[in-house]
Design goal:
Elements lengths: L2 H23 L8 H13 L8 H7 L12
Length: about 70
């Protein structure tokens, strides 16, 4: 895995965890932020086909199209 993909993966892990924590604080379902979706999309586009996606990517990708994204976040 190249260094740029690895750095983006760390960023995705950070934002995905922040979104889950925010939902927990508000006792609400997780709604991923636009940056979290963008990172997951970008990583998905360059992810090697012979490697499974990560748990974070899978969780975020499962939410695509489930709700309107908040452009103000």
């Amino acid at each position: 895995m190249n260094e740029l993909i690895e750095a983006a993966m760390w960023a995705l892990q950070n934002f995905e965890a922040l979104d889950r924590a925010n939902a927990a604080i508000h006792c609400a379902p997780v709604r991923y932020s636009p940056i979290t979706f963008r990172l997951a999309d970008a990583l998905n586009a360059v992810w090697p086909e012979d490697e499974d996606i990560t748990e974070e990517m899978a969780r975020v990708r499962a939410h695509v199209g489930m709700y309107e994204q908040d452009p103000g976040r």
